[in-house]
Amino acid sequence: MHSVIAAAEERMTKTIGNLKEGYAALRTGRASAALFDRIRVDYYGEKSPLPQVANISIPEARLIVIQPWDKSLIGEIEKAIRSSELSLNPSNDGKVIRIAIPPLTEERRKDLVKQAKTQAEQSRVAVRNIRRDGNEELKKLLKDKELTEDEEAKNTEELQKLTDAYIKKADKILEEKESEIMEV
């Protein structure tokens, strides 16, 4: 019953996608436009994602320039950035907002690595839970005589291989994020 495997793979792919998304919001010592993906700006009564109301550019490794398409938004954008969990200090000249990314302290880097490891572990647990759900579904199909014992064993093995592959992906993504965070 490959639909069980396909459904599990789809859920595992989403889990890894969520991990990558979570990592994009983790601030490293390097400027990244992805930091602002989760920031919402009040735009004519609607909470809009910052990238939809402004151009975000990285002219230097530690500088971010945000240019709103509507100049009247500059105060709202600045307020949204200041109230975010990014701990950044924006300054504006009436046309653009500039944000200097300060280098991270050793202590802050270690905290970020800890956060990254926690997120990766949550993803690994989620992948294992998806495997468990898939195995339960396979057992149910076997009990309902929709699968033979051989098919159930083959699918269980397939599900385990899938789980191992996705856990490896989570580990690799963590490793890359860790080295990015620790880079001075």
Keywords:
184 residues; alpha+beta; 4-stranded antiparallel β-sheet; two-stranded antiparallel sheet; 5 helices; 6 strands
Fold topology:
Layout: H1 2-24, E1 40-43, E2 46-49, H2 50-53, E3 54-60, E4 63-68, H3 74-82, E5 91-92, E6 97-100, H4 106-143, H5 149-182
Antiparallel strand pairs: 1-2, 3-4, 4-6, 5-6
Helix pairs in contact: 1-4, 1-5, 4-5
Radius of gyration: 22 Å
Strand order of the largest sheet: 3-4-6-5
Structure classification:
alpha+beta
Number of strands: 6
> Which regions contain 5 or more consecutive residues with pLDDT less than 50?
none
Order of helices and strands: HEEHEEHEEHH
Summarize the biggest pleated sheet.
4 strands, antiparallel
Overall form: elongated
Write a concise synopsis of the structure shown.
With 184 residues, this protein is α+β, with helices and mostly antiparallel strands. Helices cover 59% and strands 15% of the residues.
Describe the protein.
The protein has 184 residues and is α+β, with helices and mostly antiparallel strands. It is built from 5 helices and 6 strands, in the order H-E-E-H-E-E-H-E-E-H-H. The protein has helices spanning 2-24, 50-53, 74-82, 106-143, 149-182, and strands spanning 40-43, 46-49, 54-60, 63-68, 91-92, 97-100. The strands form 2 sheets. The protein has a 4-stranded antiparallel beta sheet with strand order 3-4-6-5. Helix 1 packs antiparallel against helix 4 (106-143), helix 1 (2-24) packs parallel to helix 5 and helix 4 runs antiparallel to helix 5. It is elongated, with a radius of gyration of 22 Å. The model has no long low-confidence stretch (mean pLDDT 89).
